Amino acid sequence: MERPNWAPGDVDLERPSIARVYDYWLGGAHNFAVDRAVAERTLEAMPDLRGVVLHHRAFLRRVVRHLLRRGVRQFLDLGSGIPTVGNVHEIAQHADPGARVVYVDVDPVAVAHSRSLLSGNGRVGVLQADVRDFGGVLGSPEVSELLDFDEPVAVLMIALLHFVSDEEDPRGVVAGYRDHLAPGSFLAVSHAGYDGDEESAASREARKIYDDDVTPMTLRGRAELTRLFDGFSLVEPGVVRVPAWRPESPDDVPEPDGRFPGFAALGRKAQR
Ligand SMILES: C[S@@+](CC[C@H](N)C(=O)[O-])C[C@H]1O[C@@H](n2cnc3c(N)ncnc32)[C@H](O)[C@@H]1O
Q: The domain spanning residue 100 has which CATH number?
């Protein structure tokens, strides 16, 4: 396959990536044939999957608008992905041109595309890093020069933590960021998962394709997601199915069977 001009030279064109497969599901153009092939196979197994990822993106937009209404002007978007419509800085800087955003992703295409889109925007930073290395992320010039941790910051982990296995200690990763935040800061999470044995055969089949060909995922239910918010008080309505988090339109309403395969929540760091 010929290397597109937007693909950094060190990217393996034959290996699917989380960010590019997601970009394809979202209708973006920054993906390779190998990403499209696996994305199509998962969609065949689970036709609702595209709707699922669109609900996660819609949650991102709703929660950012909610945070802006609560006065937050600083955002640390972890696992930010390949920019598509309705990115955090577009929403935030539309509300307040002084809002500051740092995007962090490990994927070279996500980072390269973010950088090219954002060059010239002095209030947005882009960092290529593994979010599990919270010390490295928080100590980076991109983050420390743009975000003031004496003031509230919203940390966004949208459709991210299911890529952090239990052995990799997702609670420890979240706590690493939490401990750096001023009281009154926020954590927003959306996460793939089910409660109990709800998972459908279609979802199991799609997940097997994804686990084998892209990367293994760890699904978590409501109780596990709640535990990630240790040290935060949950904002109403708490941990709920992704489309049910403060829905704004009929499109945000979950499917009638109520088994949307993922949960979302927003927490506010308690006062000391
Ligand atoms: C499913 S996408 C979600 C993208 C974006 N948050 C959104 O809601 O559109 C997950 C993103 O997390 C990134 N990611 C996964 N594990 C990561 C890690 N350990 N460090 C940094 N980024 C990671 C992937 O590269 C991908 O871009």
A: 3.40.50.150
